[in-house]
Amino acid sequence: MAADTRQSGELKYGLADLLTCAAAREVQDNEIVFAGTGLPMVAIMLAQKTHAPNLKLIFEAGTLDGRPTELPTSVGDARCEVGASRSSGLHDAFSIAQRGYVDLGFLGGAEVDEYGNVNTTAIGDYLEPQLRLTGSGGNPDINSFAARTVFIMVHEKRRFTRQVSYITSPGWRVKKWPEGTPVARRELYGAAYRGGPSAVISTAGVFRFDDESGRMYLDTCHPGYTPEQIADMCQFDLDITRVGGETPLPTAEELHLIHRVLDPDAIFIPHPQ
Amino acid sequence: MSKRITLQQAAALVPDGCCLTFSGFTIWRRPMALVFELIRARRRHLHLVEVQGGPQSEFLIGAGCVDIWESCWIGHELYGKYGANLSRKVAEKKIIVEDYSHAEMLLRLEAAAAGIPFAPSQSSLGTDIHNPEYDMLGRAGLRNGDNPHIPRHKYRFMDDPFYDAGQIVLVPAAKIDVAVMCVQQVGEEGTVRISGQRYSDQEVARAADVTIVLAEEVVPEEYLRRDAERNAIPTFEVDHIVECKWGGYPTGMFGRYDVDGDFLRDFYQRTRTQEGFDDWAQEWVYPLDHAGLLEKVGVKRLLALKANTALQYSTSIKRGG
């Protein structure tokens, strides 16, 4: 992500800073949080240094309640292990999720639809793909079992799509296989139901999902965007009747923590120019 | 009888058509020295069943060694966002990809390690991972029972018969011929000690019919047996041992060396096309052996990757952009 620097009074911040701070605000204290690679990792560590000092960090590769002092570049990184309660493996990470310990997971996606179904597998017809992507990784597993998941995405009209090319990760309205019957997530997951996508943080705004219908609505606009502009950046009809204003800007303290403490080498978050 | 063999002997234990898996996690502790050796030996028709892929899969796939890849993820983390070689071969229909979720792949290995034929899960319900139209081995007519590595079904669905928990997905155990591990220490008899995260290594070693361990060091068994609780894999699960320093390079190893991000980024950027891959392999794989590769990388770069022994990672590499 380019630095894309903006200015607000004395403060210079980048788009990545805005997203990191928005993501950090999704974390509540004392929560057990599944940390993915990249910007989410910075966001979670930012929350830990501000309003959520007691959060517990789980790395998918097998570190439980880690307290890294240097930013890991991936969840298998030796840096994840520092200060951990337990170092083990994938079995622990996934059984903890399936058992229902995980409050929040941060995930990514190439495409999302209005029900929060996400694609990270292939663009175009799966059988004749235009582009094969990385695949699911743990995205559907974490999204299946965490009480809340937050997706961080680049906002383009083709990515906020009427129908994702492939449902990699389950939203609020999914398919019951082997027939493929449309079904509400709550109904399909039975006893394993614990929640689902709670927010999408895109490069244009923050989106949430209606409790009843499971449909996406616009919550806040990032500075520089109107609700109408954002609605025009979605292929589906985006509900913009519930907009709660502008996405809060990063504070001076948050910017200091991101660029001087958490990611001083700009591994994931570029320094504002 | 000694379990020690050479890298070349290890490569010979992975024949054409072998169903293969590896230790490690994405860009960490992959047995790359053996992967390079398999490419040099121009191995063909490999069937990779991996909890998740990484550079090892991308190198083998780019070199045309792989016919079938069953897994959930491929890429180089920060150093390359997807598997460009896999993408190209998928588009050209030169490889069959069978997608499962990460937890499902782990369960397939866990079932195999536990000696049970399948495992139940409620993960990924409602996704296209379970779409029967996307059963690619089935589409290729390979689920007829002729290939012992390929189960008759990709999935089966059932309702929980015990507690009415709802829909359950059954995933087949993975039938692995050979697992190749890359670890810090192994004893002369095969006891494995892993430092740091164990990823899915214990499951992988137990699941495979033959387990080959590449270790940075072969150490006295007596030393490892003083602290048995620190050991990850027992002697009898390990068939062969290769002492191979920097055997995971360019992936990283906890306590020993970091990932060489520059090497992976260079690979990712240069191998979008087959010509690019061939050119890269001509430079970094075919004319070299393991020592030759390390020599080409150079002492300066390797020293920068070396881990600080208190922190377990390198403090001298530049990681940021």
Structure description:
The complex is a heterodimer of chains A (273) and B (321). Chain A contains seven helices and 17 strands. Chain A is α/β, with parallel strands linked by helices and 273 residues long. Chain A has one domain (5-262): Glutaconate Coenzyme A-transferase, CATH 3.40.1080.10. In chain A, the strands form five sheets. A nine-stranded mixed beta sheet of chain A has the order 6-5-4-3-7-12-15-16-17, sandwiched between helices. Chain A has a two-stranded antiparallel ribbon with strand order 1-2. In chain A, helix 1 (15-24) packs across helix 2 (39-49). The radius of gyration of chain A is 18 Å and the shape is globular. Chain A starts with a strand and ends in an 11-residue tail after the last helix. The mean pLDDT of chain A is 95. The mean pLDDT of chain B is 97. Chain B has helices at 7-12, 32-40, 55-62, 84-91, 102-114, 136-139, 201-207, 221-225, 261-270, 274-284, 290-297, 299-305; strands at 19-22, 46-49, 66-71, 96-99, 118-121, 156-159, 167-172, 178-187, 192-193, 210-219, 240-243. With 321 residues, chain B is an alpha/beta fold. In chain B, the strands form two sheets. In chain B, strands 1, 2, 3, 4, 8, 9, 10 and 11 form an eight-stranded mixed beta sheet that branches. In chain B, strands 5-7-6 form a three-stranded antiparallel beta sheet, with helices on one face. In chain B, helix 2 packs parallel to helix 3 and helix 3 (55-62) crosses helix 4. In chain B, a hairpin with a 7-residue loop joins strand 6 (156-159) and strand 7. Chains A and B meet through helix 3, strand 11, helix 4, strand 13 and helix 5 of A and helix 4, helix 5 and helix 7 of B.
Please give a handful of descriptors for the protein shown.
heterodimer, A: alpha/beta, Glutaconate Coenzyme A-transferase, two-stranded antiparallel ribbon, B: alpha/beta, 8-stranded mixed sheet, 3-stranded antiparallel sheet, 30% helix
